[in-house]
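Entry
Fold in token form

___
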Amino acid sequence: MAGVEGKVAIVTGAGTGIGRATAIMLGAGGATIVGCSRTQANLDETQKLIEQAGGQGMTVSADLGTEAGVNKLVDATMAEYGRIDVVVNCAGVGYSYEKKQKGSMADTATVTRENWRTVMDIDFESCVMMGQRVIPIMQKQGSGNIVNVASILGLVGIPDAHAYTAAKGAMVNLTRSWAVTYARDGLRCNCLCPGYIDTPMIESHMDIFESEETATALCPMGRAGRPEEIAFGIKFLVSEENGFANGTILVLDGGTTASP
């Protein structure tokens, strides 16, 4: 699929999982990648993989849950390349974050205010702050493309992880609002909602797919998705060949949300 050649693309959460797979795929397709995550060692590995795939770009280590981190990423990109054509907001935390911050995936009645704010800052406010910085740049350019990576858990209810589900649900509807507000400025804004994907974010729960009965109950295809499958969906949304996609909420979940 063509349509990303020559574009400067920021990919957040590029250190692992879906973000890494997206950075590699867009880089191989001819985009110049600016990969961002909090851990430089992970970014270094991603950069090697991008270059092995024939791509190019740079990395920026930053905490996008803070305004200072967002400014560091955007300022570095503009200083190096002078424009931003694509932003993939993939940075976030999920169930694996429980190892670092216990109780962060709790329900509303038991989650602490600190944990709620932390998850919302990383999973949703980072997206908001990125929009506040890059949308004016894209308006000035007269073009731009934003993909917000949410989750099917932003579309359905679950018994726990309420800060996570609230953040992802907010991301879905913010995408729609951006789409209707900025289309006349030349921007396209879309959202991708993955299902269960085999990434470090849910590695602590991947054993649920060891049972065929449980696996097929969670996903009709009986397996978790691969990061590359989600990356291809993101590439589809950002491609200029797909120029009529705006306000799209693309669900890639192997049929999970289609199940009764």
